[in-house]
Amino acid sequence: MDKVPMTAAGYASLDEELRQRQQIERPRIIQAIAEARAHGDLSENAEYHAAKEAQSLNEGRIAELEDKLSRAEVIDVSKLTGNTVKFGATVTVVDEDTEEEKAYQIVGEPEADVKRGRVSIASPIARALIGKKAGDTVEVKTPGGGKSYEILKVAFV
């Protein structure tokens, strides 16, 4: 049973989703099943089958969230310091080919969202950045080929 590293914000987000699914979605789905049952023959009742499928998906996600939250190791990023890249660091890099600057925060897998600049600690870019400092150059092997980045700044926000 491995611990799952997570920021406090990531934990709160998963906890809120769990509360939403248990207290709002679950009763809504149960009500939809009850209404569909009232329509009669269940074998050809599309509303009933759709509601049962929604219930199955919701209960599966609840179990997944409960598992992740029970194994969570919450790391308070605001208490971290240093000049080397580690979990929770926000790293500003520049792509050496395009000169485009990007900032990434290294977070746990459940809270990763590349569009919001949050990359999983298990991702190729995070693995390449871990242990490096500002001024270092890293080579990242991506599915689209190799990329080279220079680290401009390491911060813990």
TrEMBL record:
<dbReference type="InterPro" id="IPR023459">
    <property type="entry name" value="Tscrpt_elong_fac_GreA/B_fam"/>
</dbReference>
<dbReference type="InterPro" id="IPR018151">
    <property type="entry name" value="TF_GreA/GreB_CS"/>
</dbReference>
<dbReference type="GO" id="GO:0003746">
    <property type="term" value="F:translation elongation factor activity"/>
</dbReference>
<feature type="domain" description="Transcription elongation factor GreA/GreB C-terminal">
    <location>
        <begin position="83"/>
        <end position="155"/>
    </location>
</feature>
<dbReference type="InterPro" id="IPR001437">
    <property type="entry name" value="Tscrpt_elong_fac_GreA/B_C"/>
</dbReference>
<protein>
    <recommendedName>
        <fullName>Transcription elongation factor GreA</fullName>
    </recommendedName>
</protein>
<comment type="function">
    <text>Necessary for efficient RNA polymerase transcription elongation past template-encoded arresting sites. The arresting sites in DNA have the property of trapping a certain fraction of elongating RNA polymerases that pass through, resulting in locked ternary complexes. Cleavage of the nascent transcript by cleavage factors such as GreA or GreB allows the resumption of elongation from the new 3'terminus. GreA releases sequences of 2 to 3 nucleotides.</text>
</comment>
<dbReference type="GO" id="GO:0070063">
    <property type="term" value="F:RNA polymerase binding"/>
</dbReference>
<keyword id="KW-0805">Transcription regulation</keyword>
<dbReference type="InterPro" id="IPR022691">
    <property type="entry name" value="Tscrpt_elong_fac_GreA/B_N"/>
</dbReference>
<dbReference type="GO" id="GO:0006354">
    <property type="term" value="P:DNA-templated transcription elongation"/>
</dbReference>
<dbReference type="InterPro" id="IPR006359">
    <property type="entry name" value="Tscrpt_elong_fac_GreA"/>
</dbReference>
<keyword id="KW-0251">Elongation factor</keyword>
<feature type="domain" description="Transcription elongation factor GreA/GreB N-terminal">
    <location>
        <begin position="4"/>
        <end position="74"/>
    </location>
</feature>
<keyword id="KW-0238">DNA-binding</keyword>
<dbReference type="InterPro" id="IPR028624">
    <property type="entry name" value="Tscrpt_elong_fac_GreA/B"/>
</dbReference>
<dbReference type="InterPro" id="IPR036953">
    <property type="entry name" value="GreA/GreB_C_sf"/>
</dbReference>
<comment type="similarity">
    <text>Belongs to the GreA/GreB family.</text>
</comment>
<keyword id="KW-0648">Protein biosynthesis</keyword>
<dbReference type="GO" id="GO:0003677">
    <property type="term" value="F:DNA binding"/>
</dbReference>
<keyword id="KW-0804">Transcription</keyword>
<dbReference type="Pfam" id="PF01272">
    <property type="entry name" value="GreA_GreB"/>
</dbReference>
<dbReference type="InterPro" id="IPR036805">
    <property type="entry name" value="Tscrpt_elong_fac_GreA/B_N_sf"/>
</dbReference>
<dbReference type="Pfam" id="PF03449">
    <property type="entry name" value="GreA_GreB_N"/>
</dbReference>
<dbReference type="GO" id="GO:0032784">
    <property type="term" value="P:regulation of DNA-templated transcription elongation"/>
</dbReference>
